[in-house]
Design a protein that fits this description.
Number of strands: 13
CATH architecture of the largest domain: 2-Layer Sandwich
Number of domains: 2
CATH class of the largest domain: Alpha Beta
CATH superfamily of the largest domain: ATPase, nucleotide binding domain
Helix content: 40-55%
Shape: globular
């Protein structure tokens, strides 16, 4: 089965193609399948959103509309054509969506209607698209493309939960098209997933692939959102996580410590929930106090040593909090494996702490590659492959449905 994945939950426009087949009877593989990556493309809008210090939803929506069809053309190059679309069916499909989609997604509709390559149906068996959680205006662009393609080509469309994508993506051993056929990593039950991204911080208990229970989540800011906000306070560009991490690493190498001790939020709360809003506010107060104590004009560039030390303390506070909650979750659930997913999982300091914790408990630890850690369509196609396609009306949502 060949699956086209579509992902537009935030500010990455992503498409992917994978092929799956049943795993051998003697092989144990999640979902009972093997897969190979045909292609995976991600177009980032980060430079455009940097001017706003974060994701601007209407801009993300517009850029998805502009980028999706050109990316689709690129990803379908070299894929065999199954048959041409009957001209009258093509015309009816365009007109049937015009009234609905052209007013809300003009860039997408105009691009779709002008794309002559769509008149040839490719060898694709299923279209998988992110339904949520995410930014609703952005999600609808991907959903609308999937709906139009499904109608035009007569291919079933399967909605996918973005967070399940992050879980399943971490089970992929190789993300390269050159990797060939592979099985997903074996996942003993019960397992535990810590999903850390710009929009989410969740602890998920996994009975098996497809059986999930959220046992902890943030009460306010997600951890990636906190990184972005702290980066802005430190005068760093968006997305902030890599820049804060870079400053923290420089502080470590140069032996710079912060004289300020930041809180470890909810570390002794007795539950598995998170809160990062107060940590971000503590960084804001530390910067204000610095200006007051040094008699420096508010808003003036901060000294490098101060910025590096504060970045290091912030990253350490985040690490302590996440590791403490993950350890408590392991002990509570009796987890036999741990998955880390989401864009923040690319943070090297965090990965090192997670590896040490997993080694302490003698547990297998699955973390995604750099390509799969961020938002991507490869994980969406893969998550769809583990479930039967069940046609239903889609509804873009910012709420997790795991």
């Amino acid at each position: 089965m060949i699956i086209l994945g579509i992902e537009t939950s935030c500010d990455e426009t992503a498409l992917a193609l994978i092929e799956t087949r049943p795993a051998g009877a003697e092989q144990s593989a999640p979902g009972g399948i093997e897969c190979r990556v045909i292609s995976s493309l991600v177009h980032s809008q980060a430079d455009l959103h940097n001017a706003y210090g974060g994701v601007y939803p209407s801009l993300a929506k517009r850029e998805h509309g502009r980028n999706l069809v050109p990316l689709l053309h690129k990803i379908l190059e070299g894929l065999p054509v199954q048959e041409p679309v009957e001209p009258s069916h093509y015309a009816r499909t365009i007109e049937s969506f015009r009234h609905e989609i052209e007013p809300q997604n003009p860039e997408l509709f105009e691009s779709f209607a002008a794309a002559g390559f769509l008149k040839n149906k490719p060898f694709i068996d299923r279209i998988a698209v992110t339904e949520g959680p995410g930014l609703e205006p952005a999600l609808w662009v991907g959903i609308n493309l999937a709906r139009m393609l499904g109608e035009l080509w007569g291919i079933p469309v399967a909605p996918v939960d973005h967070m399940e994508g992050h879980i399943v993506g971490s089970l992929l051993s190789e993300d390269s098209p050159s990797a060939g056929w592979q099985r997903l990593r074996t996942l003993p039950a019960p397992a535990l997933a810590l999903l850390i991204s710009g929009g989410h911080t969740e602890l998920v208990e996994i009975g098996s692939v497809g059986r999930y229970k959220i046992i902890g989540q943030t009460k306010d800011d997600a951890v990636g959102e906190a990184f972005d906000k702290v980066a802005r306070l430190l005068g760093l560009p968006y997305p902030g996580g890599p820049h804060v991490s870079k400053l923290s690493h420089e502080a470590f190498e140069e032996g710079i410590s912060s004289p300020i001790k930041l809180p470890r939020p909810m570390i002794s709360s007795g539950d598995l929930h998170f809160s990062f809003s107060g940590l971000k506010t503590a960084v804001l107060y530390a910067i204000r106090d610095h200006y007051k104590e040094t008699g420096t004009e508010n808003g003036k560039a901060l000294p490098d040593a101060f910025r590096k030390g504060l970045a290091r303390e912030f990253e350490q506070a985040v690490s302590d909090t996440l590791v403490s909650k993950l350890q408590a979750a392991i002990e509570k659930t009796g987890a036999r494996a741990v998955i880390i997913g989401g864009g923040v999982s690319a943070n090297h300091a965090l990965r090192s702490r997670f590896q040490a914790l997993a080694a302490e408990f003698d547990l297998p630890l699955y973390m995604p590659s750099s390509h799969v850690s961020g938002d991507n369509a490869l994980m969406i196609a893969l998550a769809s492959a583990l479930h039967p396609a069940e046609p239903r009306a889609m509804k873009a949502s910012g709420t997790a449905r795991l």
